[in-house]
Give the backbone structure.
Amino acid sequence: MKHFVSTVFRLFVFLGFLHGASAIADSSGKLIIGYPPGQSVDSIGRLLADRLGEATRRSWIVENMPGQAGSIALAAVAKMPADGSVLTLSASAALAGNPFLYSNVRYDPIKDFEPIGLIYDAPLLLLVNASLPVKSLNELLAYLRANPGKLSYSSPGNGSVSHLAMTELLRRSGTQMQHIPYQGATKSLSDLAGGQVQVSFDAVAAAQPFLASGKIRAIAISSKERASVLPEIPTVAESGIDDFDMVPWVGLLAPAGTPKADVDKLSAELAKIVRSEDFSRRIVMLGARPRVYSAPEFKTFLRSEVAHWSSVIKRSGARPE
């Protein structure tokens, strides 16, 4: 009899363990990131997954799904369960740019996702090789007009935000430069520092090592406001190109149809996280700016950004390689 009772007890313990393991599995979710490990979006995403886990008492497993500048991940997320267990961290290029650059994008940036909140944006620096005799945007434009066809600019690739920002600057200023696309920011900025190209637009974080070396110079920033990390750098708008505002950003989304209660809860927790001192400090260290948007605010913002970048792409004539 004692043996029977002992056996039954062990069986109940075992079943309880299985139930507990199942509950843990059921409480986990996925945070899909469309970029490789180690990139800035990935590092912020992993920190966000930890903070969301603490706030929601649910473990969020980061899954990297790189490809086509973030579009592979978004296409996959659009087909995943809309039950609150799937989130994606995505940049503006994948949402507001790629659907108008690539013919094979398999998602609608408006219809296929539930925006949860904006997290940060990252203004671009207008950079020149240090040997170029210009120290302001106005001096650069004057040099371009006096030396037509003599300068070239680099970008991390055709259709990149860097490329699109420069096409818009050249269009609005009535000037010209030859575009030299690269595979990524590192090579683009290395050749800018080496003098193979003379001008570029790129993110603060990517440019910092080259600025520190003294081989390149920042003469303007692409946002409407100056950056707190580089307050001495004037905006493009301040330099005479009115309302110039070409800023990439990163936000959190879920598949379309995710219950409103889940979206609202996640949006509220996300706002707290972005406002927190340690999280916002990490964003600023990247040369970016923390941004807190509610789910409805982010939805409105996304619509406006899709309209904005689709127009810029159409005007630029950009096509991926």
Remarks:
- Confidence is low (pLDDT under 50) at residues 11-26.
- The domain at 124-221 is CATH 3.40.190.10 (D-Maltodextrin-Binding Protein; domain 2).
- The radius of gyration is 23 Å.
